[in-house]
Amino acid sequence: MENSMQTITRAIQILKTFSINQKELSLAQLHHELGLSKSSLQRILNTLVVNGFLEKDNEKKTYKLGLELYYLGKLVEENSHLLTTAKPYLQALRDKLGENVYINIIEDNERKCIAFEEAKHALMTISHIGQTSPLYMGASAKLLLAYLPQNEIEHYINQTILKPVTEKTIIDKDRLILELQDIREKGYAVSYGELVYGVFSASAPIFDNRNNVIAGIAVSAPLARVNDSIIESFITSVKEVANQISEELRF
Question: Looking at the Swiss-Prot or TrEMBL record, what is one Pfam family this protein matches (predicted)?
């Protein structure tokens, strides 16, 4: 039983090594990333390929994620009440504002994008489903952090080293605490280049039927494309859509 569980764990580790920046990996790269023996890796890789979870390029001797994961992912999407409820609102918000819009959640003490609708601009902000970031930087992340229970907020801040990604990243813990209080009072969060230089973002909370924040909806745009009135319209729009999704989730 222990060996079986170990094999399953290793298979999961292999699958989670692939990312938007590592779409194809060789046996040697996986060995380097995971530190597993090449013989063990090869056995697990062969099993994943046979079952459709990985595809092998015999010429390049590399592996990539297989279609079986896509099919399973579509099942998850179709069965997720949040995603199915939010999708038409997300698309309508993208069309109204003409900018990229997202839904984010907290997973493993990070902000994670679980839905994304892309606008059609020559100059766009870049994101993707599965993208993560620390909870102390950017509108979406700060929003989710702000609505955690107070003891969880304090624990996160006490245990986290606030490292700057841009010159706008908040790295002072007292300032972050005040920012989180302000977010809860206003009901939304904004960022002016805290996570990505030159990008504005605004985010508002989505509540479930027990009035718990389960996600945040956000819009982002290059600062060069916004002004005060556009920013106000972004904030108003994300709050309205977040409220609409929350109302639908309550029934």
Answer: HTH_IclR
